[in-house]
Please model this.
Amino acid sequence: MLLRTPFAALLLILVQWMSGGGLLRAADPLPSWNDGPTKTAIIEFVERVTDKNSQDYVKPAERIATFDNDGTLWSEQPMYFQLAFALDRVKSLAPKHPEWKDQQPFKGVLEGDLKAVMAGGEKSLVQIIAATHAGMTTEEFEQIVLEWINTAKHPKTGRLYREMVYQPQLELLAYLRASGFKTFIVSGGGIEFMRPWTEQTYGIPPEQVVGSSIKTKFELRDGKPVLVRLPAINFIDDKEGKPVGINSHIGRRPIFAAGNSAGDRQMLEYATIDNPHPAFGLLVLHDDAKREYAYGPADGLPDSKIGTFPQSLMDEAQQRGWTVVGMKHDWKVIYPPLKK
Amino acid sequence: MLLRTPFAALLLILVQWMSGGGLLRAADPLPSWNDGPTKTAIIEFVERVTDKNSQDYVKPAERIATFDNDGTLWSEQPMYFQLAFALDRVKSLAPKHPEWKDQQPFKGVLEGDLKAVMAGGEKSLVQIIAATHAGMTTEEFEQIVLEWINTAKHPKTGRLYREMVYQPQLELLAYLRASGFKTFIVSGGGIEFMRPWTEQTYGIPPEQVVGSSIKTKFELRDGKPVLVRLPAINFIDDKEGKPVGINSHIGRRPIFAAGNSAGDRQMLEYATIDNPHPAFGLLVLHDDAKREYAYGPADGLPDSKIGTFPQSLMDEAQQRGWTVVGMKHDWKVIYPPLKK
Model:
């Protein structure tokens, strides 16, 4: 007894010193985020809704987090990556369609004349989607997407497109999940374009991906069940469509919503206004021309052509207390380190 | 040592006896299922896909189970319970619609003349749905459903409708979840009619409910975000629609699918034919006129009017090796004990 008591007391002192001094403090959940008001706001919110002694406590089942994809979880310049996929796909299919050499918008795609393609407006886009995204089964399309996403490279960075996800956002998704949140993607992009790779890339399984879709049709083909992708729009998951898609797929209001453009405005409104729970709105501002791209309303930046972040959205963010993440100052790194 | 060894040996013998003799055997996961080929088939399948040493092992993320609702998880006689809800709703709303006294199908509902209602066919049904399911916000509709489901009683049993869920199926759902499955409802019923109570009743959260839906529209009403339910069909989650709904909401093929009628045929085909994983198809046969209802193709039973289980489905079940659950012989009890 005499021998053991001083040892126990010493141990107690040691433990107190370690915890008080920070040696036992939890590791930083967001290591790629610079210290500052943005990071603090995120962590304080998460701690507030997960602390059982807080009056703002939210049960795990209600901790729904929704993230836009293009420009929020990965880059979207110089064009949406799904559009790059579609254009590559037109080139792959061209040998089977000799008539495309003389037909817009395909002619423009094959000749690299994007102005001619865009001149056709929405009609051209629908023609390209129909030619590249429909006419096969869902399983065939999944294979086509996987082949592209595992090989196609971005013209500026030389990275695979799937390597152009934002490292700080990967950490934020993981932090939210470790805090009992269920993380969802809610994107204007195609649901079946994202699902084949979101689980491996973001840790988000297919059933937690919400997106735009074309119609499908069930049939037994040679006795085997398939879903055939039809050239007809089913749902556009953008702007007012995002709350509709969230309600349809999730059936609960998010308490955390992240976006980067006017297409995300209604999702953030749906999450943060008049929500019985505390809720967090986050907008990514692309203000880092050196490490990524700069577009949006910030001083000296040109107006955006795609993924617009208009001044009215910035005004609304200030009015409603949404947190604006400036990539330049808030993020230590943009992309994950490349695997050798 | 001399004293302790005999004791340890005794303990070892005791433990071996207890485990060998069944005292330490795992508790029966399906206590309301009678022993027999049906129960054995279910348990053998679950053990096969969850045993890491089995070549049929399926990773937890791929363990998707989909259940029809009406007639599979709860009763559906003498009419779909959602139809009973709609008729009750017409009666509640009647004072605000004096014109209904002279207008079919509402006149028929108010006078209890269901033949007159049904004479109007699908058009009448759509009118009733529009009058009772649309025109309010999703949150208002949720409250209306909750009020009904917590008070309305079945004409024959006197139970609350929500107490007419099948006890053996509650155990099956729990057993699958305990075995790493993610359980979904995939029903022809309305998605927003089910979601308010499925979590408490079945342990299935709103984001795992797939069903038929009407269109909704996002708007800021008095500055607050709402989704307004519109009198327009969005999606019918029945027959060929079930695989479409599964793909849209889940994005993976189920490896366990349960239904009870021709409306579930395509879901079971989608799950069990040409699936790279082992898959289980289950059909509930209502052959118990005494404890529940009897309808379907079995000897001496009348052809079904709703929730049809035609002979062709029975033939397909035999051909494809789907397991048919006979309520009369396979289930010890039908409904859960009533809470006092």
